[in-house]
Amino acid sequence: MATADDVAQEIATAVLKALPGYTNQQNSFMPFVYGIARHKIADAFRAAGRDRTQAVAAVPELVDAAATPEEHFLRRGKEIALATLLTALPQRQRDVIILRFHHGLSARKTGALLDCSDATVRVTQHRAIRTLREAVFHGHDKE
Predict the structure, then answer these.
(1) Which residues form the RNA polymerase sigma-70 region domain (predicted)?
(2) Domain ranges of the chain
(3) Is the pTM of this model over 0.70?
(4) Class of the 78-142 domain?
(5) pLDDT tens, position by position, 8-67
(6) Which of 64, 73, 76, 84 is the most exposed place for a label (fewest CB within 10 A)?
(7) Residues 31 and 39 sit within 8 Å (Cβ to Cβ)
């Protein structure tokens, strides 16, 4: 947020920059300066209205975002289960799933890497997801 000193400095700078274009007329200098000041003050109020930050007396403590051993164990278990499911897919479908979801590539870029069209990538992705979904649901039925 701009302080009054900051706004006054901006006004003075703007007046100095505008002076070469100023034409002197009788009693016109102060209205000229007031016009510049009015615009700069309005800009400062607009900027203050957009600023949603709040000053605090002390820096808040940071939350430890590191995973607990239990969370790490569960995440690792999910990774192993996903890797097992991916090995059940044909190589082409596995490549599409990895490129699209792990690497975040678009269908067009994935198709360029696999030397096929983006429509082929989408169909292959759909079939791979359907196969994975069936494997997951069948796995739950067995338990």
Answers:
(1) 2-50, 86-134
(2) 1-70, 78-142
(3) no
(4) mainly alpha
(5) 999 999 999 999 988 888 888 899 999 999 999 999 988 888 877 777 788 777 776 777
(6) 64
(7) no
Q: Tell me the pLDDT tens digit for each residue of 20-31.
A: 988 888 888 899
Taking the CA atoms of residue 40, residue 41, residue 47 and residue 49 in that order, the dihedral angle to the nearest 10 degrees is -160
Q: How far, in Å, CA of 52 to CA of 62, rounded?
A: 21
